[in-house]
């Protein structure tokens, strides 16, 4: 493909949207950046789960999905818009939502109803099936069918004809009550095409107005159709969009029969993809030819440079094909002026289905490599559906609006719900990568992207866009973008306090009730709200960690039961699970453990660096300190994004590089330092500290032995010295046995080896020459002792580190002695509290050659504290501590067992809170994108008349039992004869048993 564009550029000069969780451009963009997922339980006023939900796939009239993404707050001002009341009430909501949103795009483009040119202006709308109100209203005209069915049922049950007729009469009143009477507006108000016609009517457009129906591709097809209309000169201005308000049994049961809905989370482009969650929404863009927009002085968000459409042909009606999707993309870029391989990202269809996602990824890859090989991991994949679900006919236009915002702001928007990328990224799509973190680009650069949508029937549509003017201030978020993109968490911590167990139980049940109807995004807001109302002096404290509303509700109910039946006594902590804990009048001491080599991970502490300015500044300083002593900056090695590795081999190389001791030591020290500083800012400080090997350097910093710069440069000096000591021929291995057994095995081995670490009573680590350690492993296995070589670069804590010890004695950037410490430090070599004044240089150098006795260290610090926290990457020390202390001893919690696992930190913070820590909760939410919490019952959601409370306006006479001349006895006899002998036998048995009336 060439740089010459054969398509006239189409300018996007205005945008407007309504979606779950947002109805303005800035709010929508903020939700995208912060990955605010809008999924919530179906409101009873929309579709009763009691009537329509079933866990069994065999219930053909029901759906197994219980969640959706719902708009709130939309109320059309028909009076202000001067729409006749009868017309308003006879018209499906989709018409008014589309009109209001189209007017928003018009206003954003700088026009009003009176100023917009009308002669060559058009409206093209994507829609399918109009909306659920139309389907509901049409039921009124099917009353004769219902009446006949009722009559047949009455006859089959031998119901008296007069009773049946009276019942039918009353039922007709009840049945038709909520349904609008047909009028001259009804037909037009229920048709799909008049959605566009209504916009043209309201604005007096004469350039054409109609609806395109490509099922879930409708909104994108509307844009492509509009672009073609402008390119051909058939119109000068077009409002193009899509609208979908269809969350009723027709679609929910239909998609369930296809197996397209997920029972769990929506994991787009993830290995665990299982289907989508349905949503609703509306979006419009205002379009002109670019030359006209420039002549009119319009602001241009972005330009449409190409559009392509394909169909899947002989493939199944609902089965996608990669090759035809690739052809759609090729057509879009054939006249765009740039190739598909040059886009920064693709806003994908991304339904999260087992078949759809890998097919889509393969199609993008095939199109991108049309002109030859494409750089690995150069095209990001993202999808709005990961936040608001599948909005069907509106999904394409909302996806385009999101992509337009992204290229306008020069930001690659993050993808939610992808934690284990689809295997297709490693096979069919090596040029692509899931945009799990998002990326910020230079605001002056030219950014290109694609957006695509696919629909039933095999219809596919792709639109190629390019940035135009400087980033719009209308889209500028209210918070730092980098911080916002790090705001999302899989879980939140919910804290409570009370003066009594009874009050705490009541509070927990109230929280449970509030939690049920919340969206996932609102959990953060709710968590922040709860943290602001706790009392720091209340005796009872409780904390729950949860990631989904239903999970929060269930755990709060469990908490309430504990409070009611077995509340903790004064001074007691009761741990129901890692996620549920409660305490009564507790002020315990907390100890910090700092990890050493072997705990390093790619992206460790990344969330802190991305979320907080102070953490970014500290990481930058650390790189500078390292470069100042001739070492490499370490953050580039830490922050390598695994999803952007070309293949498994490159990812393994990145991990091996980070495992080199000269890199591992400053890297782990920096990550631990960042977590320690975060806890300090939260108001949590340790009563005692200890560190495993390298971790002892961080423990000494935490106790005030030296400053941050000294910690980082000392770790670097230690790593550099240990990397070359002993000729670099060392190795280490872990043996599942006690020290004496390990020493006996070593005695049989050839060459030098020694016990370097006693990690638990049954785990010893051996260090020595490579040949000797290999021999130790072989001998251990013959004795039935589990043994495994460790991925380390030398023989640490052995005499092979003598050279490193000598080097550090002269170069370690520490004082010879410190006179005092801010808290006790337990030496990992001696297993005891270090004494002050402390011979600091001797301590940090002797440790290099000395064995680590972690069993004694943990046993010692556990005598001084009530809770331990592993402050740094991994959970190695947590596991070792459990093996040492047992299940009844002092517990240890990691803050980050793996990068991105926020549940660890929340569980640890919850434990610290119930143990008495005075947490500064405002600091916890400082780096998060929190909206004001509004309970779901205070939001206005769209309601379906089928769920309205049915009433009888008139009071009908009670139905008689029969028609026997008004004689009650005769009527009863007639009734019993028609009902058979069963009731007579029951009455006789009752009377015969001596039963009396009350």
TrEMBL record:
GO BP terms in the entry: fatty acid biosynthetic process
Pfam families, A to Z: Acyl_transf_1, ketoacyl-synt, Ketoacyl-synt_C
Gene3D superfamilies: 3.40.47.10, Malonyl-CoA ACP transacylase, ACP-binding, Malonyl-Coenzyme A Acyl Carrier Protein, domain 2
Keyword set includes Transferase: yes
Keywords associated with the record: Acyltransferase, Transferase
CDD domains: PKS
Leader sequence segment: none
GO MF annotation, one: fatty acid synthase activity
Keyword hit for Ribosomal protein: no
UniProt domain Ketosynthase family 3 (KS3): residue ranges: 7-467
PROSITE patterns: KS3_2 (PS52004)
Protein name from the UniProt record: Polyketide synthase
Record organism: Rhodococcus erythropolis
């Amino acid at each position: 493909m060439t740089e010459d564009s054969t398509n006239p550029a189409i300018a996007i000069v205005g945008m407007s949207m309504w979606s779950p969780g947002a109805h303005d451009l800035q709010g929508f963009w903020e939700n995208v950046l912060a990955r605010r997922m809008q999924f919530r339980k179906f409101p009873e006023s929309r579709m009763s789960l009691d009537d329509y939900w079933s866990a069994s796939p065999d219930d053909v009239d029901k759906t197994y999905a219980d969640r959706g993404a719902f708009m709130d707050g939309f109320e059309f001002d028909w009076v202000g818009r001067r729409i006749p009341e009868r017309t308003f009430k006879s018209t499906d909501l989709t018409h008014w939502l589309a009109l209001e949103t189209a007017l928003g795009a018009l206003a954003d483009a700088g026009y009003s109803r009176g100023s917009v040119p009308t002669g060559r202006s058009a409206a093209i709308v994507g829609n399918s099936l109009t909306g659920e109100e139309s389907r509901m209203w049409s039921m009124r005209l099917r009353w004769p069918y219902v009446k006949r069915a009722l009559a047949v049922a009455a006859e089959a049950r031998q119901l008296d004809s007069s009773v049946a007729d009276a019942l039918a009469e009353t039922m007709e009143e009840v049945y038709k009550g909520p349904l609008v009477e047909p009028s001259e507006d009804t037909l037009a108000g229920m048709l799909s095409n008049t959605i566009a016609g209504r916009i043209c009517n309201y604005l007096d457009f004469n350039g054409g107005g109609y609806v395109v129906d490509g099922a879930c591709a409708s909104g994108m097809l509307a844009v492509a159709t509009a672009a073609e209309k402008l390119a051909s000169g058939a119109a000068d201005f077009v409002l193009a969009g899509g609208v979908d308000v269809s969350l009723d049994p027709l679609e929910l049961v239909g998609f369930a029969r296809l197996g397209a809905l997920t029972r769990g989370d929506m994991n787009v482009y993830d290995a665990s993809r299982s289907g989508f969650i349905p949503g609703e929404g509306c979006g419009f863009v205002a379009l002109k030819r670019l030359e006209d927009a420039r002549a009119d002085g319009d602001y241009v968000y972005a330009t449409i440079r190409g559009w392509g459409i394909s169909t899947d042909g002989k493939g199944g009606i609902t089965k996608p094909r990669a090759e035809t999707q690739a052809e759609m993309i090729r057509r879009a870029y054939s006249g765009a002026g740039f190739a598909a391989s040059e886009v920064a990202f693709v806003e994908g269809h991304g339904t999260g289905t087992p078949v759809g996602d890998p097919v889509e990824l393969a199609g993008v890859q095939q199109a991108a490599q049309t002109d030859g090989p494409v750089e690995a991991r150069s095209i990001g994949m993202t999808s709005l559906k990961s936040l608001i679900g599948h909005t069907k006919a509106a999904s394409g236009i909302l996806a385009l609006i999101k992509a337009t915002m992204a290229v306008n702001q020069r930001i690659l928007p993050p993808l939610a719900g992808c934690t284990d990328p689809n295997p297709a990224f490693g096979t069919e799509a090596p040029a692509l990568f899931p945009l799990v973190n998002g990326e910020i680009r230079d605001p002056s650069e030219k950014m290109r992207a694609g957006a695509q949508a696919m629909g039933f029937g095999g219809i596919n549509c792709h639109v190629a866009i390019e940035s135009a003017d400087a980033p719009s201030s209308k889209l500028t978020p209210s918070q730092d973008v980098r911080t916002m993109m790090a705001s999302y968490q899989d879980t939140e911590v919910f804290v409570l306090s009370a003066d009594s167990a009874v009050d705490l139980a009541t509070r927990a049940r109230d929280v449970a009730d509030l939690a049920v109807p919340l969206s996932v995004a609102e959990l953060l807001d709710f968590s922040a709200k709860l943290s602001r109302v706790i009392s720091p002096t209340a005796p009872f404290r409780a904390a729950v960690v949860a990631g989904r509303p239903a999970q929060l509700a269930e755990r709060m109910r469990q908490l309430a039961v504990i409070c009611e039946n077995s509340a903790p006594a004064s001074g007691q902590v009761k741990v129901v699970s890692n996620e549920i804990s409660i305490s009564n009048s507790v002020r315990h001491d907390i100890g910090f453990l700092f990890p050493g080599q072997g705990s390093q991970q790619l992206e460790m502490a990344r969330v802190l660096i991305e979320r907080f300015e102070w953490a970014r500044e500290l990481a930058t300083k650390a790189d500078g300190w390292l470069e100042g002593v001739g070492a490499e900056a370490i953050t580039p090695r830490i922050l390598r994004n695994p999803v952007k590795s070309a293949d498994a081999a490159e990812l393994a190389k990145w991990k091996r590089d980070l495992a080199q001791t000269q890199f591992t030591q400053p890297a782990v020290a920096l990550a631990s330092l960042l977590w320690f500083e975060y806890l300090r800012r939260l108001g949590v400080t340790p009563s005692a500290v200890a560190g495993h090997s390298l971790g002892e350097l961080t423990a000494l910093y935490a106790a005030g032995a030296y400053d941050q710069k000294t910690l980082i440069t000392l770790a670097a000096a230690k790593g550099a010295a240990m990397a070359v000591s002993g000729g670099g021929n060392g190795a280490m291995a872990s043996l599942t046995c006690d020290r004496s057994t390990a020493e006996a095995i070593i005695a049989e081995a050839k060459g030098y080896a020694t016990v370097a670490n006693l990690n638990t009573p049954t785990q010893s680590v051996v260090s020595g020459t490579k040949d000797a350690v290999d021999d130790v492993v072989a001998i251990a296995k013959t004795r039935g002792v589990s043994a495994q070589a460790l991925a380390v670069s030398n023989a640490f804590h052995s005499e092979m580190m003598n050279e490193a010890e000598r080097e550090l004695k002269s170069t370690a950037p520490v004082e010879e002695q410190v006179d005092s410490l801010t808290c006790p430090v337990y030496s990992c070599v001696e297993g005891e509290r270090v004494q002050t004044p402390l011979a600091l240089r001797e301590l940090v150098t002797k440790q290099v050659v000395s064995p680590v006795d972690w069993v004694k260290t943990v046993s010692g610090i556990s005598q001084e504290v009530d809770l331990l926290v592993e402050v740094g990457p991994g959970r190695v020390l947590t596991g070792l501590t459990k093996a040492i202390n047992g299940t009844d001893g002092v517990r240890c919690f990691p803050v980050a067992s793996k990068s991105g696992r926020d549940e660890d930190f929340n569980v640890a913070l919850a434990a610290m809170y119930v143990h008495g820590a005075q947490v500064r909760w405002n600091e916890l939410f400082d780096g998060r994108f929190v909206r004001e919490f509004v309970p779901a019952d205070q939001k206005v959601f769209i309601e379906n008349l089928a769920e309205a409370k049915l009433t009888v306006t008139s009071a009908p006479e009670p139905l008689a039992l029969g028609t026997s001349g008004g004689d009650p006895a005769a009527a009863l006899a007639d009734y019993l004869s028609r009902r058979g002998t069963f009731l007579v036998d029951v009455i006789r048995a009752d009377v015969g048993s001596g039963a009396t009336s009350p």
